[in-house]
Amino acid sequence: MCILKENDTIGLISCSNGLDHNMKDRIDELISLLSSMKINVIKSKALYKNIDGSTTNGKFRANELMSLYNNKDIKAIFDLSGGDLCNEVLDYLDYEKIISSQKPFIGYSDLTVILNALYSRTRFVNYNYQLRNLIREDSKNQIKYFKKIFLLDEDIINQINYKFIKGNYMEGILIGGNIRCFLKLAGTNYIPSFENKILFLEALSGDVNKISTFIAQYKQIGAFSKINGIILGTFTELDEKYNNNYIENLFLEKLKDYNIPIARTYDLGHSANSKLIPIGKNITLR
Predict the structure, then answer these.
(1) What is residue 79's predicted lDDT score, i.e. its pLDDT?
(2) For the whole model, what pTM was predicted?
């Protein structure tokens, strides 16, 4: 079943840091592009920052998100933001109404927080992906990819190139996303169980010390003793500074006492050519 079809309407919102107003021309370009694909757009009042440069408060953003869920014309919700403020909205969402709406939420980076909280509370599948990739450096390929995945229902996992760096098989329900942002859920009732899951991890920023301390925290909350596998996406800062094997060797060393299959892909993360991955879906890699 396709996520979208021609003449469907989607909602655009920023549940994390609001977009700068100087991005308006680019967002208008994105909307025009979507229109050329016969996709209609409704913009949330929480898309941009306030006039003074601040982000609207968490309750306002949550109410705006719920208005998109409650709008029967909207078939999917795309979050265009990232940053730090996503966890402010969680306590204000009506998860029963979200379940009733049965529409997917799509975002990445700090939206890892909402994606995994939604899985924890609804058990529905949502998607780690940034719609603004359609107007970034790899626009031509991203447009083709978007049409295949969202409009033609091609298999998501088959579109992702990966290699095993430990083991050769993993199967489980996918959780995770940005390595730092997921940890905001630690100690809350929004964090998914790690039991029999595949944990996807990626990062934009983070030197070796930051990534190492995040790995230590995942150990301390019991993640690595319960999961069925790890998918490592791009770790932009480290990948740019060192060779491609650096992050792989770091995880292999830090997790040498765990018998966990680990796969690596450069198709998931913060880069302009990053693809989509389903949070809350049972997947198999072999």
Answers:
(1) 98
(2) 0.97
